[in-house]
Amino acid sequence: MTPGALGTLAERALKWSALTTAARFALQFVAQVALARLLGPGNFGVYGIGMAVLTFVGFLSGASFSYSLMLQQQLTDEDVRFSFTWQMAAGVLAAAAMYAAAAPLAGFFGDERVEGMVQLLSLASLLTAAAAPATYLLQRDLNFRVLGLIQLASYAAGYLIVGVAMALAGFGAWALGAACVVQAAVTLAATYAARPHPLRPLWRHAGGGEALVTGRTVFFTNIVNWLLGNLDRVIIGRVLNAHAVGLYTMAYNLASVPNALLLGAFQPAFLAAGAKLQDDRARLAQGWRLGVACTLVLGTPAAVVLALLSHDIVGLLYGQAWMESAWVLGLMFLCLPAWASWGLSTPVLWNTGRKQHEFLLQLPLLALAVPAWWWLAPAGIRGIALASAGVILVRALVIVAAALHALDLRWSAIAGYGARGLGLSALSAAAVLAGLELTAALASPLAALLAGGAGAAVVMLLVLLFKPALLGPEALMAIVRLAPRLAARIMRSAAVADSRGAA
Predict the structure, then answer these.
(1) What is the pTM assigned to this prediction?
(2) Kind and range of the H or E run holding 21
(3) Which residues contact 88 (CB under 8 A, 6 or more apart)?
(4) How far is it, in rounded angstroms, from Cα 344 to Cα 365?
(5) What are the residue boundaries of the structural domains of the chain, listed by start?
(6) 77: pLDDT strictly greater than 60
(7) What is the pLDDT of residues 384-425, one digit of tens each?
(8) Better-scored residue on pLDDT, 337 or 275
(9) Helices within 110-241 (DSSP H only)
(10) Nearest 5 degrees, angle CA 193-CA 148-CA 262?
(11) Among 30, 102, 261, 282, fewest CB within 10 Å belongs to which?
(12) Cα(306)–Cα(188) distance, rounded to whole angstroms?
């Protein structure tokens, strides 16, 4: 494939990925708010503990042997059969181990409801492992249109249809567990229908050694990522209770949605396209800088605005039962630029022959993170959140530094993006605070959100129309590519403004 054709295909994939990810975010947002109101923090806490276990087991079985399918420059049926065979073997063993560990885990967390939840989610673990080869083959093909539609349909079937119906019927936490299983089942059926692949077992293969090496690296990377991303909830469940887990998990998950939205749109397309650009370091660096520029220039102001509005977001959407999580939500929102920057940087390590660096560089952080979480746990979810925010920031610094080194760049290559983002954040924050002050007497979360959000939106629109240069060339380039009609209007308005100024 020529560089031009690959660029066009990658750009089309990025647009479809962004579109379907945004739609999935909207769907997820509606479903999660409805379920949170119906079920309350306690049920969400039990589900959160089960999901922490599922995520860990999923890292053992869900993608370790299929990940290499996306990274290989050339692929044969034997490669696919080999990966699928080992993927299913790992999936069966991991699901069985998860089911067997359910009772001891319930004892560890001191909540008998955990046993049934973990046993139910072990089925989701097996289904997810079976779907991994087809999922990564779709990503390799840059077919994000089909993959995104499948993710939309599976989430709707699981959480919006089954989950909400069971919650209304009084099934409590089981509604969330069943929704997860249904989502995994629909994903498996749809991905295989869209990207069928050989199913005949193949235990040995000439190229299998490299695939197993990649699988082992993915395994260790995922273990480290799980420990750094989930031990906070494990410690809350052990030291506090399921109610606290529910409050913390809601805030953490809601704050991570914009990050998941960005990475869901950019990371898979960047990783799949980057696998085809392993020998073109300059183009790889250009794509990475574009992603980081969007994150820091556009994402930082959005993070600050969301943080300032976090109390009203919780009050309006979730109600008084969840208000204790508002402070945690605001802090996690402030972590979004660091979160996204590290997520955009990991594909650089994988596409430059540094696949082991992601987990090796983060291992020392565990020695700092675990005692920090444990020490701050008696302070409640706020103490845990402070430690988690520090972990996110340090992880971002470490991984971004590694990506800069891999691309032969210096920190000065991205420092300007951070400065632009902070400047725009100050303008947006002033607008939000003004809006909150104007509506303070109303004591209405909706009025505060509308006023604060509108103020920030007006500020950004004025910048786009009259001072687009403040965004920098990379962020403007992204706007041009993803929204050409909007970009054309902005450029025309800017040209008119310049001509008036000259006159």
Answers:
(1) 0.73
(2) helix 3-61
(3) 129, 130
(4) 19
(5) 13-240
(6) yes
(7) 999 999 999 998 999 899 989 888 889 998 899 999 999 999
(8) 337
(9) 113-140, 144-155, 164-168, 173-194, 208-239
(10) 150
(11) 282
(12) 35
